[in-house]
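Design request, tokens follow.
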């Protein structure tokens, strides 16, 4: 028994010692749990409080601030510039950090990067506030880091602890979404003060799916990609030079629209600008049918973001007459009337956070508008 006890203690010590060098991916196993973010407006102060709940509607965390989308099992609660607390999807709180100290962005996975002025280097800080790496990481997504190498950027798989199989260096790299990522090379003959790129796509093995020949790529939809070979900004340039390709670089929709927004595998929204009007049309890719959306509705909202829901067949729209947001479906029918002053992007499990009459609520297509105070069980945190 005494020998077993000694072995047990040794194992505990070894486990504790390995914590500083352990892969930060262990927490990502929690990402398989379904948690949903929500917000509530405080009746007395008018401040925004946010939390997360599980499939049983049990609230696991609740505090003042805004919770950003989870990444690798972690997120952070943003109260103000100085008070940002890392949390995981079980509701556990970790270190607090200042946004002003963070280099580039918060990376998720319980990690962020800061600049060490004494050593003139960047270091990675984990969820407990401990330094774990000096490697200069630009971002992390889907277990793949964007890192700097030879004054360029490339990808490093943190599970395999190796660069991607068909690894190459690029002038700029973007995070992975649904197993693909945007990469870019600088256009020739331009000044360092006005750098623009030609973009392509790679998969998680580093193999090129689309060559770097596009001035614009939007790859949020898993199957089809919005592209333009000549236009860089649809909102400013307003040129009918956008189309849609598949991952084999075949044109699905010819580049003759002012923008193309993939909604589902079979439906895309087309933005058309004519001499005296502009409007959106829903286009069925298979049947080639078209249906115009109400001319008061625009799918470009007032903060210049193209917004779609990746999990449900509904589209956020802005009513120019009502000056509020709502949802339509792929048939153009109203799912939620334009009653929202604001709708947060990146829904969790089909739940949107919506601001109606100054109060934060939840909306889900098959359940409607939900009051979190009545819909959720707060007993777990009381």
């Amino acid at each position: 028994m005494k020998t077993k006890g000694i072995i047990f203690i040794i194992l505990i010590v070894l486990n504790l010692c390995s914590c500083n060098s352990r892969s930060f991916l262990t927490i990502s196993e929690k990402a398989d749990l379904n948690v949903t973010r929500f917000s509530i407006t405080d009746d007395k102060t008018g401040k925004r409080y946010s939390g997360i709940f599980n499939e049983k509607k049990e609230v696991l965390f609740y505090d003042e601030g805004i919770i950003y989308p989870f990444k690798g099992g972690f997120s952070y609660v943003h109260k103000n510039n100085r008070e940002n607390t890392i949390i995981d999807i079980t509701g556990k709180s970790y270190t607090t950090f200042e946004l002003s100290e963070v280099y580039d962005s918060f990376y998720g996975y319980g990690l962020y990067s800061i600049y060490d002025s004494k050593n003139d280097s960047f270091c990675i800080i984990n969820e407990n506030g401990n330094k774990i790496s000096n490697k200069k990481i630009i971002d992390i997504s889907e277990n793949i880091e964007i890192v700097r190498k030879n004054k360029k950027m490339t990808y490093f798989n943190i599970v395999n602890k190796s660069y991607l199989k068909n690894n190459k260096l690029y002038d700029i790299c973007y995070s992975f979404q649904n197993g693909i990522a945007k990469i870019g090379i600088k256009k020739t003959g331009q000044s360092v003060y006005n750098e623009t790129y030609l973009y392509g796509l790679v998969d998680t093995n580093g193999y090129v799916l689309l060559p770097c020949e596009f001035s614009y790529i939007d790859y949020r939809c898993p199957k089809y990609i919005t592209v333009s070979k000549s236009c860089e900004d649809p909102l400013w340039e307003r040129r009918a030079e956008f189309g849609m390709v598949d991952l084999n670089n075949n044109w699905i929709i010819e580049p003759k629209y002012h923008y193309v927004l993939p909604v589902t595998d079979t439906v895309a929204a087309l933005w058309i600008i004519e001499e005296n009007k502009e409007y959106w049309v829903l286009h069925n890719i298979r049947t080639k049918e078209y249906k115009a959306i109400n001319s008061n509705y625009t799918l470009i909202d007032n903060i210049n973001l193209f917004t779609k829901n990746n999990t449900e067949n509904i589209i956020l729209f802005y009513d120019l007459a009502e000056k509020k947001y709502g949802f339509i479906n792929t048939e153009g029918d109203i799912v939620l009337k334009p009653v929202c002053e604001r709708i947060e992007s990146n829904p969790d499990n089909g739940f949107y956070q919506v601001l109606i009459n100054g109060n934060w609520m939840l909306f889900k297509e098959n359940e409607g508008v939900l009051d979190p105070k009545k819909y959720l069980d707060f007993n777990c945190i009381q």
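Comment from the thread starter after seeing the answer: thanks! The longest strand covers residues 102-108.
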